[in-house]
Automatic annotation (TrEMBL):
Belongs to the ParB family. Keywords: DNA-binding. Residues 166-182, 205-216 have a biased composition (Basic and acidic residues). GO terms for cellular component: chromosome. It comes from Mojavia pulchra JT2-VF2. One of its GO terms (biological process) is chromosome segregation. NCBIfam families: parB_part. InterPro entries: Chromosome_partition/occlusion, HTH_ParB/Spo0J, ParB/RepB/Spo0J, ParB/Sulfiredoxin_sf, ParB_N. The lineage of its organism: Bacteria, Bacillati, Cyanobacteriota, Cyanophyceae, Nostocales. GO terms for molecular function: DNA binding. This is ParB/RepB/Spo0J family partition protein. Residues 36-126 form the ParB-like N-terminal domain. Residues 183-200 have a biased composition (Polar residues).
């Protein structure tokens, strides 16, 4: 299954393309940009790049376009000194240029810090919808690490502490509000309105956040600013829904990175604890392009187990019928590790029939 491609730089007539989205930042000061041409060999790839997987077929198509028309949209680079540059955005075009063996390529040169460069690379890929969920999650974590001046593991720890503090504040606010409502007399003129009570509780919650020894206020503000600048999701949604994604089994993470599997399907398959069965179901799901409901059916069929019980001869017809239905539902003949056992059992049944 190919990844959905939204980047079509060579569609339609060959004209000067509009400015790329990364040529203007919504944030504060704009570093001066210079458009020029440089040798491809003078451009180095960055140490950290949000995008790791490039669809081979899409890259092949881009190579053919570059052969015919060259690179129409300039790469974004930053100077390293000594006539060398580091690529910030446009790695697909860079790779295509290498494949075609171009000597020079058009570039926009801009003075950028590490975090500015990475954020621009991340934003460009996000705007083009080029990143898969894994790359997007890892990219955001790395951007946070740059902004917070710490490593990725420290960022994860901070996000989970923020989440725990948020949950605790929510619970305390609900408890306090419920307690206040109990004490409110609807006929008393001296009683505060529920709106005032709610405002007071919000102030108390904010106060608790400001003095919490577990979460640094400046760090939490930086985290919120990063997510606001990206405009994708808030930090709480990212922590709750995206961070667990990185705990998925490696083979499922790889399928996600390569665009072979949707996020919801990956989550369903990751719940299968049997590693061998999980890998087989993953392979079948990709090969047969199973829907999420089909994947769930196969998981249920292959993982449901009934405790052994003593059956009487009178129950044999019922058991045969049940087993036949379950074999069909599980499609055991499609699972390599089960095929040999299935053949052996069928041989035994055929031998029994031959004794008649």
């Amino acid at each position: 299954m190919r990844r959905k491609q939204t980047d079509k730089p060579f569609g339609g007539q060959i004209t000067t393309p509009p400015p790329a989205p990364w040529l203007s930042l919504p944030d504060a000061e704009q570093p001066a940009a210079t458009e020029t041409t440089v040798k491809l060999e003078d451009i180095a790839l960055p140490q950290h790049q949000p995008r790791r997987y490039f669809d081979p077929q899409a890259l092949k198509e881009l190579v053919e376009s570059v052969k015919l028309h060259g690179i129409l949209q300039p790469l974004l680079v930053r100077p390293l000194g000594g006539g060398k540059y580091e690529l910030v955005a446009g790695e697909r075009r860079y790779r295509a240029g290498q494949e075609v063996k171009l000597e020079t390529v058009p570039v926009v040169v801009r003075e950028l810090s590490d975090d500015q460069a990475f954020q621009l690379a991340l934003i460009e890929n996000l705007q083009r919808e080029d990143l898969n969920p894994v790359e997007e999650t890892e990219g955001i974590l790395h951007l946070l690490a740059i902004r917070l001046h710490c490593d990725v593991e420290a960022v994860k720890s901070l996000l989970y502490r923020m989440k725990n503090a948020h949950s605790k504040d929510e619970e305390q606010s609900k408890d306090s509000l419920n307690e206040s409502r109990k004490n409110v007399s609807p006929n008393s003129e001296e009683t505060e309105s529920l709106d005032n009570i709610s405002d007071n509780l919000n102030e108390e919650t904010e106060s608790r956040r400001n003095v919490s020894p577990k979460v640094d206020l400046e760090q939490s503000k930086t985290v919120q600013q990063v997510f606001e600048s990206l405009g994708l999701m808030n930090w709480l949604s990212f922590t709750t829904k995206r961070l667990p994604l990185l705990n998925l089994p490696e083979e499922i993470l790889m399928a996600l990175r390569e665009g072979k599997l949707e996020y919801t399907k990956a989550q369903a398959l990751a719940r299968v604890k049997d590693e061998e069965l999980r890998k087989e179901l993953l392979s079948l799901a990709i090969t047969n392009d199973w829907s999420l409901s089909q994947i769930k059916e196969q998981i249920q069929a292959n993982t449901s187990s009934e405790p052994p019980s003593s059956k009487t001869p009178n129950q044999i017809p019922e058991r045969l019928k049940d087993i036949t239905q379950r074999i069909k539902k599980r499609q055991l003949w499609n699972i390599p590790s089960k095929q040999k056992q299935l053949v052996n059992l069928l041989n035994k049944l055929e031998a029994l029939l031959g004794d008649e």
